[in-house]
Amino acid sequence: MTDQNAAGTDPRLGLTVTHRRYVSYAEAHYAGHLVAGGYVLGLFGDVATEVCIRTDGDEGLLASYAEVRFLAPVRAGDVLEVSATVVRVGNRSRDLDLAARVVARGEPERGESAAGVVEPATVVVTARATVVVPPGS
Ligand SMILES: C[C@H](N)CC(=O)SCCNC(=O)CCNC(=O)[C@H](O)C(C)(C)COP(=O)(O)OP(=O)(O)OC[C@H]1O[C@@H](n2cnc3c(N)ncnc32)[C@H](O)[C@@H]1OP(=O)(O)O
């Protein structure tokens, strides 16, 4: 019988949590209804929090971000899908791969409220984060 733990693989590795969020026009900060980069980091914090709840029964704390890449603009009217995957489990630290994708977007050239599904989704931001949970979580 193959036992993941006996084989030394932590069952938390590979866990993925996904959130979806409509980017309201109140979030637009720059010309062309562009949203500030920090907005997506906030969404990363939320999805990382659910990861910590699921892996350790605690909201956890973000200790660091690495390799943050802003690959394409996020605009008001976008629907974002934000995901976090556990890629390393330490003693109290866990590393997460994070990605934000635009899955739907406004199409103002068709009309004020026109919008459509973006397929395939456009990857807009990626990052690696380390979260830390309390001892004994
Ligand atoms: C996901 C959240 N719910 C959402 C948030 O955004 S929380 C808000 C933003 N974050 C904070 O306000 C955290 C502020 N920082 C702290 O409170 C502390 O620095 C800390 C709790 C993150 C770590 O402090 P401490 O518990 O004293 O750390 P250590 O005992 O030294 O180490 C424990 C493990 O954590 C690893 N580690 C510590 N600092 C970092 C870092 N900056 N980058 C990466 N990893 C870090 C350390 O290596 C230990 O790992 P292991 O236990 O060996 O796996």
UniProtKB/TrEMBL annotation:
Molecular function GO labels: 3-aminobutyryl-CoA ammonia-lyase activity; hydrolase activity
PROSITE patterns on file: HOTDOG_ACOT (PS51770)
Keywords attached to this entry: Hydrolase, Lyase
Top-rank taxon: Bacteria
Domain HotDog ACOT-type: from-to ranges: 13-137
Pfam name, any one: 4HBT
Cross-referenced InterPro entries: HOTDOG_ACOT, HotDog_dom_sf, Thioestr_dom
EC class (word): lyase
EC number(s) on file: 4.3.1.14
UniProt protein name: 3-aminobutyryl-CoA ammonia-lyase
